[in-house]
Every structure is written in structure tokens, then in C-alpha cells.
Amino acid sequence: MSEPQFHNVAAAPEPVAPFSHAAEAGGWVFLSGQMPTHPGDDARPLPDGIEAQTRRVMDNLLIVLDGLGLGLEHVVCVRAYLVRFAEDFESMNRAYAAYFAAQRLPARTCVGVTGLARDALVEIDMIARRP
Asked: pLDDT over 70 for what percent of the chain?
């Protein structure tokens, strides 16, 4: 097995803590959770509402995937974290589902949390597999 590789994608948002955008080992690619921050402007206010924040998070994850030569078709597992679980679960699902073909939904866990960095409403991470 090859040594793990650690990736940062120049076009992706600046990490909000000390971590890589992704780590890769044995064909598996683990994407760090993305926040609804804007690429190129870390100080810009977060989008308003759960649907807008979910779209920004998913778009940020797409930037990381693309930077690694991957796409959503390579994603096998997703974890989503919601601060206001009961209030935002349905709306987050609507925004999230629009990114995937109906017959190609990755395995997923969604949990409620007490808080996220930058006072975000949602954070999502992914696991992908290289073909």
C-alpha cells in the first residue's frame, strides 16, 4: 500500500482549522467537512438559511473533488452535521438531493450537533473511491 497523500486544492475555500481538504490512501479519498464559506473570500458572510448554506457546502465539496480529478459519481459515503436538526433536516435534504442522480445516492449519516465553526448551520464531509 502506498503512503497516504494529503491534498489542498487552491480553488477551494481556505480551511477553517489545521487540516487538509482531503487525504487519500489505497484509492480511498476522504474529504474534510466543508463549511458554507466562499472560495477566495473567507471573510464574506455565510449564505442565509439552510438551503443556501447546503448548496454552498456542496459546491465547495465539488471544487475539492474536481481538484482531485473526481466527481460526485465517485462518492460512496457522506456525513452531514446540522445545528438545527429538527428545523432544517427537510430543507437540507431538498438542497442536497439535487446534486445526485436518484439511483446514485451515496450511503449517508446525518446527525444533529450543538455547534459548528463560523456559526454555520451545516457541514458535510465525504468519502470517495478512485476508479
From this structure: 99
* Per-residue pLDDT tens digits for 26-42: 999 999 999 999 999 98
Instruction: Pull the grid cell for residue 71.
Output: 466527481
Measured distance CA(115)–CA(48) in Å, rounded: 17
Largest CA distance in the chain: 44
Residue appearing with cell numbers 455547534? 115
Cell of 61: 465539496
Neighbouring residues of 119: CB distance < 8 A, sequence distance ≥ 6: 46
Please name the residue that has the C-alpha cell 438551503: 51
Nearest alpha carbon to residue 63 among 26, 32, 91: 32
Q: C-alpha grid cell for residue 48?
A: 442565509
Q: What is this structure's pTM?
A: 0.96
Residue 12: give its domain's CATH number. 3.30.1330.40
How far is Cα 74 from Cα 88, in angstroms, rounded to an integer? Answer: 27
Give the domain extent around 87.
Answer: 5-129
